[in-house]
Amino acid sequence: MAWDRNQMAARAAQELEDGMYVNLGIGIPTLVANYVGDKDITLQSENGMLGMGPFPFEGEEDPDLINAGKQTITELPRTAYFDSAQSFAMIRGGKIAAAILGAMEVAENGDLANWMIPGKLVKGMGGAMDLVAGVRRVIVVMDHTNKAGESKVLKACTLPLTGKGVVDRIITNLGVLDVVPGGLRLVECADGVTEDELRAATEATIIS
Amino acid sequence: MKKVYDNAEAALDGVLKDGMSIAAGGFGLCGIPELLIAAIHKSGVKDLTIASNNCGVDGFGLGILLDSKQIKKMQSSYVGENAEFMRQYLSGELELEFNPQGTLAERMRAGGAGIPGFYTKTGVGTVIAEGKEVKNFDGQDYILERGIVTDLAIVKAWKADETGNLVFRKTARNFNVPAATCGKICVVEVEEIVPTGSLDPDHIHLPGIYVHRIIQGDHEKRIEQRTVRKREEA
């Protein structure tokens, strides 16, 4: 037993507090929006929007209204639009309370790699480097291991970095870990996962 | 001075030359200057260096300038939607300079604002920092990034008045504002040119001082990822 994608997203949603401005990455992080409940959360989309609404009803798509994943979306009563320089000014300037992002690798010192695999197709970092450098709290949501069963929670990243020492909390299908001086601290195990199982799937140092 | 031109070809007349640099607005296919891109394609001008967050898709947007091999170098943050881009890049036909998205936007903004360089913490400790000056401010490392000034800026807005005051619509504003400011010449295409005086001066997104030439035209406004929800779910 472990958390599935939706359970990971639900757990990540617990990180969000009333009044927060938040940026959600593509993939599992996008699902977090489904679990914020009654909390007053404003979603930022780095292509120039605060107050991102749900997908439009069929026939109401607007080509001038998309999110950072280039998907058609809608606006809300609180929505504000702005240009890309303004968007990244609020990101770089620490105005966004939290970013929830996917990752390929995370290291025990908070290093994050999520934009490039050398020798494979290179798509670009988009806004990820700006987000991890500027947002006040960076939460990674990802599977604990890769398709080959190898740990993605490492002593040191092997892939080109998105940011150095930027991750605060890691939420995986096996549990929740915090980046602290000296390594990672286990916050909780996922339902049905034992601490021994989580440790066995983790290359990084977990301090006790 | 008359800023309104009849069409994209007329607005770019005398502006294009081989080897020039261009800043282009747009994010994905949203808010791209599609009429000006088509006119640049038709002109055959080549060896272009283009600063743009993305490079269109195969067969649309800046992608059509890739197909005709008019682009020498791209300065972008994300190029994942374009197979021809990958082919030309991996074969060495096309130069690519990756910029973090916010760094690219700020490089344009800074260039347009007369700021030749700025320090940012974005990319510190990554490949982006290689070869760049690092400076410590208050215990935090920052890297030096250069402002961008281009020969030409091509921009899409929603409305303009005859003096070039611009209004954008929703998320189609994106890179259009910083791109407009960093071009030595800025050519803008809009959906509607309205009489001077009919835009509320308090609601201008970009003042006409940045805008040199304007055209009005019909836009395809292609959607890249059409995502919807069913009414029953509501």
Automatic annotation (TrEMBL), chain A:
Keywords: Transferase. GO terms for molecular function: CoA-transferase activity. The keyword Transferase applies. Pfam families: CoA_trans. InterPro entries: 3-oxoacid_CoA-transf_B, CoA_trans_fam_I, NagB/RpiA_transferase-like. Belongs to the 3-oxoacid CoA-transferase subunit B family. This is Succinyl-CoA:3-ketoacid-CoA transferase. It comes from Paracoccus sphaerophysae. The lineage of its organism: Bacteria, Pseudomonadati, Pseudomonadota, Alphaproteobacteria, Rhodobacterales.
Automatic annotation (TrEMBL), chain B:
Coiled coil: none annotated. GO terms for molecular function: succinyl-CoA:3-oxo-acid CoA-transferase activity. Pfam families: CoA_trans (PF01144). The keyword Transferase applies. It comes from the Bacteria. Keywords: Transferase. The keyword Cell inner membrane does not apply. This is Succinyl-CoA:3-ketoacid-CoA transferase.
